[in-house]
Description:
It is built from 8 helices and 7 strands. By secondary structure, it is of the alpha/beta class.
Amino acid sequence: MTRTVRGARVLITGAAGGMGRMYAERAVAEHAASVTLWDRDAAALARTVDELGAVSRGRTRIQSFVVDVGDLGAIAKTAQRVRREVGNPDVLINNAGIVRGNRNFWNTDNGDDTRTTMQVNALAPMYIAREFLPGMISNAYRAARIVNIASAAGTLANPRMAVYAASKAALIGWSDSLRLELEQSDHGNVKVTTVTPSYIATGMFAGARGPVLAPVLDPGYVVDRVWRAMLEGRPLLELPRSVRFSRALRGLLPTRVFDRVVGDGFGVYRSMDRFTGRR
């Protein structure tokens, strides 16, 4: 699986629109055997299935499942249906995510925002991967891929998004640990890619401002880079490159100096001041 996903079974969460749909379009264009779409928006999911089906013209099987990945109990039930009706995926893209921002942590809604954000962004990818990993591992002669879409916020603290940052930090820690466990257990056919992008112009972070050296990213550019990293089995993709630079400075500079130079000087700590998110 170094060039395309042709002949592979692909499963994408948060696939009814935005970048999830773009990953699905890429899989259909490369003639994947099947593309399985998970999303909680039934109407948008149905439209996406119809439109992808018209493009694929029967070359790729398009299957959809209405599921809210924040409902952790629904994940096992839906995964069981996928294995029975489609087969275990060869490629899993954990794309679904939510953000609640522009509020200080103590002003969040009685813990509901915290619980939901952690379930969707951190726990759901773990639960989903756990459902499909045994099948990926057992098929040792077929390349398999897991892509976990995290965020640069998980590598660098930022005001007004404390819970989101915590959820993505948890995702990053688990994702890279999973990669190492697979490599050390001689399950090299399954490769894990962790993605840590800065803000992307999908509407999810509407109103957020890109800091110095980290402009808001074009979704098409991100999808292309993620897709290539996934096919190559690259362990980590940081977008843009300044994310890696900021992470290095965080390790080198004293905390207060970093706050002044990068947080305030580069505008990182003010980037969520005008955040509105999707209406």
